[in-house]
Design a protein that fits this description.
The complex is a heterodimer of chains A (358) and B (296). Chain A contains eight helices and 21 strands. By secondary structure, chain A is of the alpha+beta class. Chain A has two domains: 230 residues, 3-Layer(aba) Sandwich (Rossmann fold), CATH 3.40.50.300; 114 residues, Beta Barrel (OB fold (Dihydrolipoamide Acetyltransferase, E2P)). In chain A, the strands form four sheets. Chain A has a six-stranded mixed sheet with strand order 7-8-9-3-10-11, sandwiched between helices. In chain A, strands 2-1-4-5-6 form a five-stranded antiparallel sheet, with helices on one face. In chain A, α2 runs parallel beside α4. Helix content of chain B is 73%, strand content 0%. Chain B contains twelve helices and no strands. The longest helix of chain B is centred in the N-terminal third of the chain and has 39 residues. In chain B, 29% of the residues are buried. Classes of the chains: A alpha+beta (358), B mainly alpha (296). The interface between A and B is medium-sized, with 27 and 20 residues.
Chain lengths: 358, 296
């Protein structure tokens, strides 16, 4: 059983509180991602699970065993976990074989067993022909796979990954995402993955924990987090979104500064913020809601076209859709944007949620 | 053709302007005497008189036939061996203990261990002479500790160790600084990765830290060997070669030969021989240890 139970964990460095009241369970064999911007506390949480930091208050259990808590602390080398670092942390003075064999050598396994297991792991991470090479002779992606192999070879029940793909180029990141997910399925391990890249989080996770400034904003599957973001931060951080301020009046939301309104039958009253995903707007008529505006800019991205539409009051909407439907449009053209779906939040008056797009 | 010449002349002018004076001093004070010294090794100059004759290789023959030279040399080798071993061992131990903020007052301790290096050799020797002959003897006699009750400086068997002790005291701090720099260069994540894989502190030290410290050891071993062979000031101030020449190390012996025994030619030959030997040892050491070096 390799679930991770985090009970009331708070972490402060001196006066600075980095994580507040973290109270969650990561289930056995689950792929969990801690997602958030830099400095939100996700790496600190990972390091506390690993044992490199101690919680200021609270308790962490791996399986049924308390590893960090009042009066107990199990050091990292005794926790039976694997970890992959952002900088790979492969040892430069050992070749690939010795790097991957290291955990087994420490456990004093017999030579034949080590050889067999290392060769098996190297096959899984596609590095069999590089066994004699040294890290400085390998590319970033290959070094990352060495680190992954080394983390897996001792057959840990928990695998921790700290932004492992940040230093790789885009195409490699995509293929490594798939490989990691596949390995997790094949080995049946619990994975805690830390990243600020929401595409990675969505592609790989069973559940995403969105964190900001030490506080969990939302926990859910990728679909839930994307389609039903719990607050403006999550809506903004995961994917792209357009924010428009307005006020609820008579079954409609009057959008501030635009002189336009959209129908609304939800629960909020008073000042609100409307959040619309770019892909939920199109030029094809729907009967849900619509806004008029002027097309100011288009960015051709190959598979889609990214457009800016000026809807008045200095506000722009960002639309994304299949390129060909936009081929016939010209800049400065007046058009009507149809909205398929939108979210509404209460307006707490803070400015940092409203996006200003150029 | 003319343009390249002009550029060369320009470069030469710039060089002479900036590096000229220093090069001149270096050549006149070090290079020329060195070369002249080599010339003198082929003469029988006594260091004072105006006349001397060319004697070709007879001085060098005397070097190999002088038993005092070889005794002194072996004594120096023994001294260098222990000094290099203890200075590097202690220096590394101090650096390892005083890195990573595990010990309170780390910076103060580092400074404290480094300070002996700043004291000049003569003063160092005299202070320790006082400690060995007076302070330790006093402690030994008062507390009835046998091996401290008589000054080690008066004992031909123990006197060499006084030199080792003083050199260790003088240089450990300096080597500690070099090791601290080397340790700080090891990325923290490399050690954390080893920890996660199950390595205890000692195992990490052996398999990760020490291999990555090889560049630092290349430097420190080279420095300690070179300084060990060339030691003179501490030798003079602490023991002056005594008792009964049992601590006369090689630099002191050469000095005696050249200036006090007035056999300048022989003395210089010994010195030159020493130079070649130390250069050979140092270069060999650097060559072989460099092979162990790895890029982090």
């Amino acid at each position: 059983m390799a679930s991770i139970t985090i009970s009331n964990v708070t972490k402060a460095f001196g006066d600075v509180v980095v994580l507040r009241e973290f109270n969650e369970v990561f289930h056995d064999k689950e792929f969990v991602t801690l997602l958030g911007p830099s400095g939100c506390g996700k790496t600190t949480m990972l390091r506390m699970i690993a044992g490199f930091e101690k919680p200021t208050t609270g308790e962490i259990k791996i399986g049924d065993r308390v590893v960090s808590g009042a009066g107990t602390f199990v050091p990292p080398e005794k926790r039976g976990i694997g970890m992959v670092f952002q900088s790979y942390a492969v040892w430069p003075h050992m070749n690939v074989f010795d790097n991957v064999a290291y955990p087994l050598k420490i456990a004093k396994r017999p030579k034949e067993e080590i050889k067999r297991k290392v060769e098996h792991i190297l096959e899984i991470v596609h590095l069999s022909q590089y066994a004699e090479r040294f890290p400085m002779q390998l590319s970033g992606g290959q070094q990352q796979r060495v680190a992954l192999g080394r983390a897996l070879i001792a057959e840990p029940s928990v695998l921790l990954l700290d932004e492992p793909l940040s230093n790789l180029d885009a195409k490699l990141r995509e293929s490594m995402r798939f490989e990691i997910k596949q390995i997790q399925r094949d080995f049946g391990i619990t994975v805690v993955y830390v990243t600020h890249d929401q595409t990675e989080a969505m592609a790989m996770s069973d559940r995403i924990f969105v964190i900001n400034r030490g506080v969990i904003q939302q926990v859910g599957s990728p679909t839930e987090v994307y389609r039903k973001p719990a607050n403006q931060f999550v809506a903004d951080f995961v994917g792209t979104i357009n924010f428009l301020r307005g006020e609820v009046k008579n079954g409609r939301i009057e959008l501030a500064g635009l002189g336009q309104s959209i129908p609304y039958d939800g629960i909020y009253k008073g000042k609100v913020v409307v959040a619309i995903r770019p892909e939920n707007m199109s030029l094809l008529p729907t009967d849900k809601a619509s806004l008029t505006g002027k097309l100011t800019r288009t960015f051709y991205l190959g598979d889609v076209t990214d457009c800016r539409v000026d809807v008045g009051g200095g506000q722009y909407l960002r639309l994304v859709a299949d390129s060909r439907s936009y081929d016939s449009l010209t800049e400065d053209q007046e058009l009507t944007v149809y909205i398929d779906d939108f979210l509404v939040y209460e307006d707490d008056g803070r400015e940092d949620h409203t996006k200003i797009i150029t | 053709m003319l343009e390249t010449e002009k550029r060369f002349v320009d470069k030469l002018k710039t060089y002479l302007l900036f590096a000229g004076p220093t090069t001149l001093v270096f050549v006149t004070v070090i290079i020329l005497p060195f070369l002249f010294g080599i010339y003198l090794t082929f003469t029988n100059w006594d260091g004072i008189s105006k006349a001397y004759t060319f004697v070709s290789f007879s001085n060098y023959k005397q070097v190999f036939q002088d038993p005092a030279f070889w005794t002194s040399f072996l004594r120096t080798v023994k001294y260098v061996f222990w000094t290099v071993l203890i200075v590097n061992g202690l220096g590394f131990f101090l650096a390892y203990a005083l890195t990573g903020n595990t010990v309170k007052g780390q910076n103060l301790l580092r400074t404290g261990f480094f300070v002996p290096n700043l004291i000049g050799g003569i003063i160092l020797g005299l202070v320790w002479r006082f400690i060995f002959s007076n302070v330790l003897v006093f402690i030994g006699r008062t507390l009835n500790v046998g091996f401290l009750s008589y000054s080690w400086l008066a004992n031909p068997n123990k006197a060499l160790w006084t030199l080792v002790i003083v050199s260790v005291w003088q240089y450990s701090g300096y080597m500690m600084i070099i090791f601290i720099a080397g340790l700080s260069n090891i990325p923290k994540e490399l050690l954390e990765a080893a920890t996660i894989d199950g390595a205890s502190g000692f195992h990490r030290l052996r398999t990760i830290v020490l291999p990555l410290m090889v560049p630092a050891f290349i430097v420190t071993v080279f420095l300690t060997i070179q300084r060990g062979f060339m030691v003179y000031d501490v030798n003079l101030a602490l023991t002056n070669g005594g008792p009964f020449k049992s601590t006369e190390l090689i630099s002191m012996h050469v000095y005696e030969k050249a200036f006090l025994a007035q056999q300048y030619g022989v003395g210089q030959s010994q010195a030159f021989f020493l130079f070649v030997l130390v250069a050979a040892i140092s270069l060999t050491q650097v060559y072989f240890t460099k092979k162990l070096e790895v890029e982090v």
